[in-house]
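Translate sequence into structure tokens.
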Amino acid sequence: MNLTDAANLSHSDWKQRAAALKTSAQTRLFIGGEFVDAADGGTFENICPVDGSVMNTCAAGKKADIDKAVAIAKASFKSGEWSRMAPRERMAIMYRWADLISENGAELALMDTVDMGKPISDMVGVDIPMCIETVQYFAECIDKMTGSITTTEYDVMSTVLREPIGVVGCIAPWNYPLLMALWKISPSLAAGNSTILKPAEQSPLSCYRVAELFVEAGGPPGALQVVNGMGEEAGQALARHMDVSKISFTGSTEVGKLMHVYSGESNMKKVSLECGGKGPQIFCEDLEGELLDRAVETAINGIFFNMGQVCSAGSRLIVHSKIHDVFVEKFIAMGKDAYTCGDPLDPAVNLGPLVDHESQARVLRMVETAVSEGGQLEFGGTAAAGDLQEGAYVVPTMITGVNDNDTIAQLEAFGPVVAVIKVDSDDEAIEIANNSIYGLQGSVWTDNYRKAMRYVREIECGTFLVNSFEEGDMTQPFGGYKQSGNAKDKCFDSLLSYTNTKAVWFRLN
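Result follows.
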């Protein structure tokens, strides 16, 4: 079912489809164009975050399965069946792939909802359309990758070529299971690489299906494979493999650092990282009227969307003392009930559970720590009650009176928890914004564009927005500074990062 028809489904319709999906969804590894069991027969339970029940049992890939997939990928690359395919032919397959994602949009949306609790309305209205756009964008880029001829002496022709790297390993997170996977595998495939995806073990279903659709679209079976499993087993085996030429990883900063270790201990493969964030949103003293209201509304969505499980979430609100009290009052009035916990299969619900009960416990502990360190709990700070108490829910939470070095101001909560820090000047706001190991995304809200440009120049982050947050399109690089990582997703530069540059020197006489 496509997205247009999916938008008309009711809560009851989605529940029926979810019940059927639990038994019909493919949960085995996708290797060489076929679904297969793990080599040692290993499995693990796929837990539903809504009520803690077991949805199904997934194959647990390990080193032997990674070895098998890499061998197939390497043979596929060497054969040239994808890597040397004419650009326009590769484009046609990827366009067809995007069409199949669209045609199966309802199924893919449902898979991510049951796996990690994302509201179905967000999947239908946001994630799947962006998935389609991602594949289409990188398909469009395929024949735009050009080399160059440099200026040199008369009897020499010097050229620069772009070539695919070879076998690429992609490790994707669970907070945007399909979208983040496609941010990686789409440019890798567009560049002509053979690609192996290790999805997060919490959310593999949509990744299996989208790989199957790639082969259905005409892609060679060896060009895209999916090996699910635990990070310390399948993920580490992929990152250490001597025949994998690049690892693209999105996840925690702690594990991201290990990717560099694994690269150094194996073949010095390229490593692209997109890790954590602690996004500062800065609100200047000149905000008033409509701009202030829009700033507050955007701040609410910037932290509570996707249950706050967004690495670029605006989790630190740095507010000038002149407007602080009014800002907080408006945030409470507009934000306390803006997001309501409920069954993510209900199209009217905009806040589902966190991905698992471990995450729920961690977020609630961070709230307790914030209060013990002097923060003021304005609303929230608890699990959901009543019929939802078995799920991994955390209600939207606001904490004011936070100091710059408090735990909640420094560590990534990865939940619907916002911390408010009061400042008295631009100098103080900039110092606090940059006092973080992270540098992924930030913003400033002001009616003074000279002031805005100062923030643009001085805030240390990979993406910075003025009078907006979480906006952009496929042309915009997404990635951070400092311990937020070293890569750029989306954008044309992302595609080029999946290629090698070769200099060629022709002596003509």
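Note: The CA atoms of residues 39 and 65 lie 6 Å apart.
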